[in-house]
Amino acid sequence: MIPLRRPLGQMLPRAGSIRHPAALKSPFDQLCRLSSTSAPDLSLSDKKWSQPPSTATVTDSDVANLSNQHQHSLSLADLVKHGRPPLAAQSLFSSANFTLSLLPIRLAHRIQALRNLPFIVVSNPNISKIYNNYLHSLSTLLPWKHRTISNVEGEIQFTSVLAELVHTHQDTIPILAKGFLECRRYISPTEVTRFLDEHLRARIGTRLIAEQHIALHYSSAVHFDPAASPTPCPEHPSFIGVIDTALCPADVVDSCANWVAEICEYKYGIRPRWIVDGEPDTAFAYVPMHLEYILTELLKNAFRATIEGRNSKEPVVITIAPEPPDAGPPKVKLDPPAENKGAFRSEAIKPLDDNAPGVTIRIRDRGGGISPEVLPNVWSYSFTTFSEEDSPAGANPGDALSVISNANSGGSSIAGLGYGLPLSRAYAEYFGGGIAVQSLHGWGTDVYLRLKGVGKIQ
Fold first, then answer.
1. What integer is the mean pLDDT of 307-334?
2. Which of 115, 256, 357, 370 could form a disulfide with 439 if both were Cys (CB 3.0 to 4.6 A apart)?
């Protein structure tokens, strides 16, 4: 079978090579080697940095105190506020301390949410594994909680902790889904959907915070080495960490559509056609990985419906409509780049206030629409349009949790998978966007994806 997802770096060549920390033999060696090669001594203190212990015991009071604190609502403006790459040392330390101020609180909130599940559910080996992963990650951050990162050595050590955190939680969703599937007698589908919706939104932010600092680490003046980054950090002037400040949705649409069309051709022997209209030259600031995931899932649904509705002569039409410029807040003032380093040239970065603040993308297919009995269930994690033929070994048709839990089995299908819409909606809504579905049964479906950009930057 063709793998369901290919490495995201292959989908958009302009984004460069994208590698996950799991691909590194040792994220710690990768980071710590910088202290002896490319990192000058920029210590702000005469005292030698003393590395804190790698872990600390997490007590009930630690979880209670942190989970009672307000969880900062992350915005794209938060992620770009430390300046344009390459960051100066002080800006890099500021990014590290900002990251440190957010992550322990976020991890504690997730631990508390898992504790609030029925005891028999948390006792499940898979859900217990995720619970222990969160405890471990919090234990690696607690020793840093009352420190200020103010020198290069400390920043390197902290970034290695973030690399481990990202690696530890890479398979959280399939493992959770398998656990909930095994506990279906003890927790209702409504409770599962509510928990996963909240958990996904929290996980998106937590992972993005960590990956953004790792990417800024490698695109800083101190550690400049984009090729070594285990997270998206291409040597491209429009990028600030994992954010592309001049992302062209039309390019992403074509790249994702080509990939989905390949799967269709393999499975059905038919390659659907698509048309991009509206304003395809639109560009705005967004996270390419998020848009790639959302569009891949939505196009899989549209292409499959087009083929199975025996209407493959009709192209899927993707319309790109930028929002009018927003003169209001938020406004962010960026520090200039530390120096001319590699491809990061200040004059090459298009000012964000020249970009549209947001974009709406409509995906229209003539695949027959969604039947009235199915339509109310499309946002549920306990529903899928998967059939017996499509299901991975051991998966139950009609249950999206089965599909998610088998996501790492290497199987692939063009089927909607059920969880594509709720997961995509979680990504879209995270920064103030959303997804709406309008279906005309017997005719076709329109899906509206609204994405909110970063706003004005000075």
1. 76
2. 370
